[in-house]
Design a protein that fits this description.
0% strand, Ankyrin repeat-containing protein itn1, 2 domains, Ankyrin_rpt, ANK repeat, single chain
């Protein structure tokens, strides 16, 4: 009988790697019946297991089959973990599946790892997972991505993340929009009193025509500044300044 676990490509992939990448569910199932639990941990030359390949393909069914055989697979591999991969690719179902399987471990990650996953989820519009991670560690609300953008900036520059209540016919986006709004509010709380950040986010939202985001910014900050003497007038001055800067940018 041939060795079904041997590497068959120049980058060290096994038959299971290839089958997972090709979405061959029946073939994967047959391979899993013949492979040992240890075989599933096999990595290619860059440290990716077959679960990484299933993740990249977004095939939750194959991922489930693999985890039934070996439940710790999401934590294996010497390169980027499958959960990060799913989040960066925007595979929402796969990311949620993997997060549900590993959330206990995510709680024990250091702040750098949690922050990376958080900002990756925000960038991938996986707001439900991002909110759960933020509830684990509120300090990551100020995390930045590789381009130096915070979660507030990413949300402010993404009008499609917010669905107006008047457009209730977009039922499929309602839940994600609700999560985006809650996430925005939670992150904003970490910047209360930081005028430079608030003005930048106001500008970002105005520049992108993100009306829902602007409304939240105005409401939340009027409440905050309203508790201070002359605060409301001060905030409105900052708002007008942001709008003026936005108008000037359109004239360039």
């Amino acid at each position: 009988m041939p060795d079904i676990q041997r590497r068959i490509t120049t980058i060290g992939e096994t038959a299971l790697h290839i089958a997972a990448a090709a979405n061959q569910e029946d073939f994967v199932k047959n391979l899993l019946n013949r492979l040992s639990r240890e075989n599933l941990a096999a990595e290619n030359n860059v440290g990716n297991t077959a679960l990484h390949y299933a993740t990249a393909a977004g095939n939750v069914k194959i991922a489930k089959l693999m985890l039934e055989k070996r439940s710790d697979l999401p934590n294996l591999g010497s390169e980027e973990k499958p959960l990060f991969m799913a989040a960066s690719l925007g595979h929402s179902q796969m990311a949620q599946f993997l997060y549900n399987k590993t959330k206990g471990i995510v709680c024990g990650w250091n702040q750098t790892e949690q922050a990376k996953l958080f900002i990756t989820c925000v960038g991938g519009e996986l707001y439900g997972i991002a909110m759960e991670i933020l509830m684990i560690n509120r300090n990551i609300a100020t995390a930045r991505n590789m381009e130096g953008k915070t979660a507030l900036q990413l949300l402010a520059r993404n009008p499609s993340a917010f669905v107006s209540k008047s457009r209730s016919w977009l039922k499929f986006k309602q839940e994600n929009s609700k999560q985006a709004s809650e996430l925005f509010k939670k992150c904003l709380q970490e910047y209360r009193g930081d005028d430079a950040v608030i003005q930048n986010v106001l500008f970002d939202a105005a520049e992108e025509g993100n009306i829902e985001c602007l409304i939240m910014l105005i409401r939340l900050n009027l409440i905050y500044y309203g508790k201070q003497k002359g605060g409301k007038a001060y905030f409105m001055l900052r708002l007008r300044s942001a709008m003026k800067a936005y108008s000037a940018s359109l004239m360039r």
